[in-house]
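Need tokens for this chain, all 211 residues.
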Amino acid sequence: MDIASQIRRTLRNHAGQLESLAVRIHETPELGMQEKQACAWQIQLLRQWGFRVQSPFAGLPTAFKAVRGVGRPAFCFMSEYDALPQIGHACGHNLIAATALGAGLALAETLAKDRQPGTVVVMGTPAEEGHGGKVQMVRRGALKGIDAAMMAHPSSRTTPDIGRTAIVRFDVNRRRPAVLDSPIRATATDSSAAILRSIGHRSRICPLRSR
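Here are the structure tokens for all 211 residues:
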């Protein structure tokens, strides 16, 4: 089975869980550093899927690091799940969380089925709205041992955001790195885009809150 087919199968098998996660987080908005329910729901799913979870993480009570697989490269999907004051999840962080978990699962399943080396990390990063959760985590070494990281944000179109890409161009002056030959190269972006297309187009998941 090719990589794209494996991604689609994984997403079909877990679509209900991912949509339920997005809806529950949307219906239970929690401000930065207070995301106890959102954090717990994600950890519960990740453990069901065979990830080893550490939480609290990097000194933050609602942060987590979930790991599956072994060896390099180590690829990280970032999850956000804090809400905005008074308007809830108008920025779609509930979708970011579901996308990160689904993409991480799809990549981990692909690596396992193809017996490829590689570590998949899903990292819960609280307090994006105003508290700099990721800044605090990076300063405490949260990305140590991570070769690459990405996050998918809901939008009206599917495109890389070059203005917010940490590394736009880089050169490799040694042998072809394993990351380019492994399923990680295609699966990471394909699975994130597929999940956003699947759950992000259902308007009931992310309407603006009126209260």
